[in-house]
Specification:
Radius of gyration: 26 Å
Strand order of the largest sheet: 1-2
Number of strands: 2
Distance between the termini: 60 Å
Number of helices: 0
Helix content: under 10%
């Protein structure tokens, strides 16, 4: 395709629209973090990712691993 008087062809571009959709299916777990306290919290791995919000510096035991909260993303419950 060229315009009248132009020697260079015009390039045809296709325009695509990118849409973002965020699907949320979450259940909130409320509770209290007790220093040096032990409380059993069961997570169901068949229901996807679980997040647990605690105070900075506290440790969380999940699936037999101790995680330092400094490495977790903090969310308020």
């Amino acid at each position: 395709m060229t315009f009248a008087g132009e020697s260079e062809p015009v390039k045809t571009y296709k325009i695509y629209e990118v849409t973002e959709k965020q699907i949320e299916n979450e259940q909130k777990l409320g509770g209290e973090v007790i220093p040096n306290g032990i409380e059993a919290i069961s997570f169901d791995p068949t229901k996807g990712t679980n997040e647990l919000a605690v105070k900075k510096g506290d440790e969380v035991k999940k699936d037999s691993f101790f995680l330092n909260i400094m490495t977790l993303l903090l969310n308020k419950v």
